[in-house]
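Quick log. Single chain, no ligands specified.
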Amino acid sequence: MEFDIVHLSRLQFAMTALYHFLFVPLTLGLSILLAVMETVYVMTGREIWKRMVKFWGTLFGINFVLGVATGLTMEFQFGMNWAYFSQYVGDVFGAPLAIEGLMAFFLEATFVGLFFFGWDRLSKRQHLAATWALAFGTNFSALWILIANGWMQHPVGAMFNPDTMRMEVTSFFDVLFNPVAQAKFVHTVSAGYVTASVFVIGVSAWYLLKNRHNAIAKRSVAVAAAFGFASSLSVVVLGDESGYEANINQKMKLAAIEAMWDTEPAPAAFNLVALPDMQKRENLFAIEVPYVMGLIATRSLTEEIPGIKQLVGETKDRIRQGAIAWHALQEIRDNPQGVSQSVRDTFIQNQHNLGYAYLLLPYTNDPTKATNEQIDKAAWSTVPEVLPMFYAFRIMVAFGFFFILLTAVFFYYSSTSRLDMLAQKRRWLLYVALWSIPLPWIASEMGWFVAEYGRQPWIIEGMLPTFAGVSSLTVTEVLLTLAGFVALYSTLLVIEITLMIKYIRKGPDDGHLPGDTPAAPVPAHPIPAPAE
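-> predicted structure:
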């Protein structure tokens, strides 16, 4: 990786985002599980469900606080590291981020307080309403972040103003109901539900292995397995929807994910395993599954999927058209009042390709005078590294199908009241659940890598290259802040893990509920045997 301001700024944002998302999915999923468990408590009046809510709520609280702490700096990074990006899209980006802030710090924070401190101050139904409001606020705040991110992937409902050099909203409805944003939202929150379900199953499996808190552990598995099974199925279905949207709006990302160098006739095959070579621009070998890619990406057997080379060729044409828009833009900026209407018309006709002209700026100061060689380099710069994209996606998918299997197995044993048999005869399944706890986080991070790295070199797809959005900082300044963030976030991560382990080892307050087998008390003095 080059040691420059652009790559360092990307690395800094990637590090803070990846750290932050270690806390987010568990928060999303646990909030719903808490609401479900408390609903059962209110409906049945059984004390054991209240104790379950309090125990898992403690773990939720630890995760929630650290998630908020790590997320605070991300919004400030836009102004610190991405000043031109913030100026360029502030009118579009500002509204979702502001609403998310209101959701996170007013709605969520209010009901978090009611959840933890309202047990003795609210009635059962009032507290249940607060818990559901907390779950709603937690998930709804994620919507606004993903609307902002989805707009970067597929910018709709806005138009570039050549006089102000900014993107301006033309339809907030289109921004809000952006199909890419909506697909990302439901896919991301479903992944969070799977994360929380696997976490609850894994921790409960540990209790069953230790023969501790069995009553609470078995009920927790029953709720989490049912919720997790449904969620893991939805992740796969909604992931398919994301793939379909990518084929419509981000064809280069999809081609890189599939290591598809050449356009294949319909129906396209799916590369199960491949070894992509960026230098030779081909796969050294590949194992293909016929028809599958065509069904995933186009939902048909008659549409072809363009390959990387074809897309690069189309990009060259867009770069040339973008250079025309860039030239017209310079004339408008030089003489905004006296420029002719024909120049403005020329800009309007070609402005949808303006961002492609910016791709030439690393190679020439004047895109209108770019050589064919420079255009070729700029076009190939739109191809992300294929090898990491290819395998990151497959790791994520493989884990997704594993979670379906894992949650289905535990749903079967819990619904048939056979969890005790696992602890006696199939303990290895409990160990599988325990050691599976980190896997949803790995899958989520792989998913974000594919989503964000896959749209490079764009910070706004097709409109603004990443290098054009950075602030005027020095390498030293970014390195110092990067080191500071890594040190701080690593410390917070250690605190999170330490607190989680501490309270998991302590366990819930089950009060020797039925189903547990506490050790028999040892008498203070031996009892003499009766005389013969």
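The beta strands are 158-161, 166-169, 270-277, 282-289, 458-460, 464-465.
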